[in-house]
Amino acid sequence: MDAIAQELKDRLTAGATPTIGVVGLGYVGLPLAVAFARSGAAVVGIDLDARRVAAVNAGTSFIEDVSGDALRELVDSGRLTASDDVLTLKDADAVVICVPTPLGKSREPDVSFITGAADALARVLHPGQLVVLESTTYPGTTQEVLRPRFEACGLTVGKDLFLAFSPERIDPGNTTYTLDRIPKVVGGVTPVCRELAVALYRRIIGHVVPVSSAETAEMVKLYENTFRSVNIALVNELAIMCRRLGISVWEVIGAAATKPFGFMPFYPGPGLGGHCLPSDPYYLSWRMRLSGYEPRFIAFADEINRRMPHYVTEMVADALNDRGRALKGARVLMLGVAYKANVGDVRDSPALEIMDLLRAKGADVGYHDPYVPAITVAGVKLPSIDWAQADLGRWDVAVITTAHTTYDWATIVRDAPLVVDTRNATGRLPAAPNLVRL
Ligand SMILES: NC(=O)c1ccc[n+]([C@@H]2O[C@H](COP(=O)([O-])OP(=O)(O)OC[C@H]3O[C@@H](n4cnc5c(N)ncnc54)[C@H](O)[C@@H]3O)[C@@H](O)[C@H]2O)c1
Fold first, then answer.
1. Which of 148, 283, 311, 372 is packed most tightly, with the most Cβ within 10 A?
2. Which of 23, 27, 66, 345 to mutate to test the pocket of ligand 1 (most atoms within 8 A of CB)?
3. pLDDT per residue as tens digits for the range 155-205
4. Is 29 in the pocket of ligand 1 (CB under 6 A)?
5. Which one of 168, 185, 229 would you pick to mutate in the ligand 1 pocket, going by the greatest count of ligand atoms within 8 A of its CB?
6. Per the confidence metrics, is the pTM higher than 0.85?
7. What pairing do the DSSP bridges indicate for beta strands 129-133 and 161-165?
8. Beta strands in 286-408 (DSSP E)
9. If we measure between CA atoms, which residue out of 139, 304, 178, 147 comes closest to residue 230?
């Protein structure tokens, strides 16, 4: 290892007090910034969103997994600051990029946030720095998109600038597997780049998993999320098949899960949501198409998962119809609009699509979600109904779409005239005449 790399490694290693930049202070970036600050580093968080920058500097958390107290303490002690000016990263030893990677209109990768961040960063980079990309993206992004931008400034990756990819696996709302307890996969553009990135993450994560290249690390993330998407599609289709045959899909999954090898349970739900699962596999199919290969599993799984909100809408209509009621004019209370339990993230949430579909059929739809104070439906702001005022008996049907653990399921089934439970969760409610289960 050359002297420049060795000096950087010494600055990054646990026990040292490097300066670390985090670009993008969202679900991924803010918890990471907090973890690095707790490890003794001086952390500078960069975001284009002035409200997020102001909130961090005021010690106010906007991410459920980051406690306001912890954030305030780090800000007050000067170990964490935020800015919208990338120039504040000029003295950083390492910079981690955590910007969004959405899909474009034709479901093609939109890496414009990555290129935007990289172009800005290129203005401040100098020899002796490490840059790691954490945003989920297609294999080749680190090499083909980041490397040329940085080398155009006269730097040479692997010699005086070090570049790696490390997929983020954080699971917002998961209190068992927190950031420090999730093994971290790291792939460098060169072996030295990897060694430096491993040193960086060893500061905050117990188990770091080095892989042979940045492309491998990029592919690991896409495989993990495609694996989930395909298996969720399989179990969603199983639920549809079981319902037709009058078999409980939950009993089938529970019994199958007693097999001690070769089986892993997945659970049906109202559809995929969030920033990752509905989008990430498309990054892989797009990349494969460039190589003349059309992946089949990804498209097929997506087709099934995207149909689930329609299937749930049909279930609600059928359940009302069985009780002599029409969906048109029915009062429907949605319980949970976040895409997953115990978070307030509604990005791509299937509950929103179900609400749209129900409203299009003439239902009068309201919602309660303890984590989502308001949503915008057809350009109109719709507030969450206060639980104390919800009065379940006044609704024709309650549709459970998110498994927030704050809900008292027994009370809901007792008080609502009809409950359609579509939660993607293991805990089953006891059978009741007014309960219809996905
Ligand atoms: N949310 C998750 O659970 C999760 C889990 C694993 C991986 N990921 C991946 O991590 C990446 C980030 O996701 P997220 O959920 O944290 O997104 P987010 O939208 O919550 O946060 C991203 C932040 O980046 C900021 N930003 C955009 N461009 C910027 C730029 N040029 N400079 C500075 N800031 C910029 C945005 O203002 C935003 O605050 C995505 O690729 C996502 O797929 C997310």
1. 283
2. 27
3. 999 999 999 999 999 988 888 999 999 999 999 999 999 999 999 999 999
4. yes
5. 168
6. yes
7. parallel
8. 331-335, 364-368, 374-377, 380-383, 397-400
9. 304
DSSP state at residue 145: I
Nearest CA to ligand 1 atom 13: 100
Residue type, 405: T
CB 40, CB 200: distance < 8 Å: no
Integer Cα distance of 74 and 66 in angstroms: 12
Rounded-to-integer distance, Cα 248 and Cα 34, Å: 44
Pairing mode, if any, of strands 419-421 and 435-437?
A: parallel
Dihedral sign from CA coordinates of 33, 89, 120, 198: negative
User: What letter represents residue 13's amino acid?
Assistant: T
Separation of 101 CA from ligand 1 center, angstroms? 7
Q: Which atom from ligand 1 is nearest to the alpha carbon of 46?
A: 33
Alpha-carbon distance of 18 to 28, in angstroms, equals 20
Q: How many CA atoms lie within 13 A of 233 on its CB side?
A: 20
The residues annotated as belonging to the active site are: 276
State pLDDT tens for residues 131-157.
999 999 999 999 999 999 999 999 999
SS3 state at 81: strand
Instruction: Indicate the DSSP class of residue 187.
Output: E
